[in-house]
Amino acid sequence: MQPILVALLAQWLGLAIAMSGTFVVITARLAIGPPQLVGFSFATLALAGITLATLWEKRFGLLHHPDTANLVGYSAGLLGLLPFLRWSNIIEVNWTPSFCWACAYLAIGNSLIAVGLLLAMIRVGQVSRVSTLLFLVPPLAAFIAWVTLGEPCYLWHGLG
């Protein structure tokens, strides 16, 4: 009985920490200004997409190599974004060194490593436990932005 109780407490404690971090990020954002309806619409669409993709990966992902799954997923994402790129009127890109470093980080860190780890965790673990780890993204991103970029976050102002 004790191992079950420890596992349950650890899972609920992790969820509570992640939810509180997410709450801090959301309330900090609300202090900047009210979110627009279009932002909520796209966030809801993204939530539905990642939920369906996670369930699809758990059900059918074992049949495909992770590189193939990444290629198909990012190709579909590109096709979905192409109309918005045209709509945004971005005419030229300024290829500065910092922009190139940011692109490299997104391509390697977010695309290859993070999604590869996510696919691996989905394949070997429970989807619900893997999904709870996604709650750690907003507070960790806010913390890293505070430490590395000096981005303000009212909770951590007293620490810096």
Number of helices: 6
DSSP, total strands: 0
Helix residue percentage: over 70%
Instruction: Kindly estimate the percentage of residues that lie in beta strands according to DSSP.
Output: under 5%
**Into how many domains do the coordinates divide?**
1
Main sheet record: none
Shape: globular
First and last CA, distance:
44 Å
Order of helices and strands: HHHHHH
Mean pLDDT: 75
Description of the molecule:
This protein is mainly α and 160 residues long. It has one domain (2-149). It is built from 6 helices and no strands. Helix 1 (2-32) packs across helix 6 (137-149) and helix 3 packs across helix 4 (97-124). The N and C termini lie far apart (44 Å).
Provide a concise account of the structure shown:
This protein is mostly helical. It has helices at residues 2-32, 37-60, 66-87, 97-124, 127-133, 137-149. It has one domain.
Write the layout of secondary structure elements.
Blueprint: H1 2-32, H2 37-60, H3 66-87, H4 97-124, H5 127-133, H6 137-149
Helix pairs in contact: 1-6, 3-4
Keywords:
160 residues, mainly alpha, 6 helices, globular
